[in-house]
């Protein structure tokens, strides 16, 4: 079934857990994530990032996301991830998405506020939730190798977060407190006290991007400090690639579906373990 972003996040709040938000820009990741969610029995956010248009269009993968989520007994949110312009988010809503993130984090503050506010108004007319972003997180969902490392100078300022939420009306906030997108080449510098300050100041559920690849203990502590949505992509896509490599190394394998099946199994195992870690962090 399909539920709203606010419903999923209040489930997280009630149970003291974070909701897994998984990018599914290829069919194997989609069926694997749905199977993992059904096995564990918690709501999951299925999402498609604008940067993944080069892999598959939001209309094509969205049709599959909506159809498969609707027929499942497990609750799912269908979310546009890192929408860079309002037209793209509107395309998502037309395709059946019921939630969106507008990423204005690289814009000047006033412009981020104004454009996020427009997205909130567009979504509110349909009863959909919006996630905004404040503070720059380096890297992106394409596994940008030049991610660098989160610099404390780029951490989100709690007072600015308070003003951003009040003026935009977003229902969730992605903020910068030490994670980076993509694969970690160095240790992340997570600031747990900042998470608490941001949650208190923003007054809406806090979202972690760059969540792939943290240790179980790091996830647990972030959740304990109030993170309620954790985005996930890179490591799931990587295990699919590793599985594909293993299959193609066998010269007796002639047909592509063997690769698809191996990738699906690998992603399901990886995403299950991620969802389980988040779900087990509850009080
Ligand atoms: Zn992100």
Could you provide a short overview of the structure?
It contains ten helices and eight strands. It is an alpha/beta fold and 283 residues long.
Folded structure, characterized:
The protein has helices at 5-15, 27-40, 58-71, 86-94, 109-124, 158-168, 192-202, 216-224, 234-248, 257-279, and strands at 19-23, 44-49, 76-83, 99-102, 129-134, 172-175, 206-208, 227-232. The protein is built from ten helices and eight strands. It has 283 residues and is an alpha/beta fold. The protein has one domain: Alpha-Beta Barrel (TIM Barrel), CATH 3.20.20.70. An eight-stranded parallel barrel has the order 1-2-3-4-5-6-7-8, surrounded by ten helices. The structure holds zinc ion. Zinc ion (ZN) is lined by residues 82, 181, 209, 231.
Keywords:
single chain; TIM Barrel; eight-stranded parallel beta barrel; 8 strands; globular; binds zinc ion
Q: How many domains is the backbone divided into?
A: 1
CATH superfamily: Aldolase class I
* Low-confidence region ranges: 143-147
How many E-type strands? Answer: 8
CATH class: Alpha Beta
Strand content: 5-15%
Major sheet, described briefly? 8 strands, parallel, barrel
Total helix count?
10
Which helices and strands, and how do they pair?
Blueprint: H1 5-15, E1 19-23, H2 27-40, E2 44-49, H3 58-71, E3 76-83, H4 86-94, E4 99-102, H5 109-124, E5 129-134, H6 158-168, E6 172-175, H7 192-202, E7 206-208, H8 216-224, E8 227-232, H9 234-248, H10 257-279
The protein binds zinc ion.
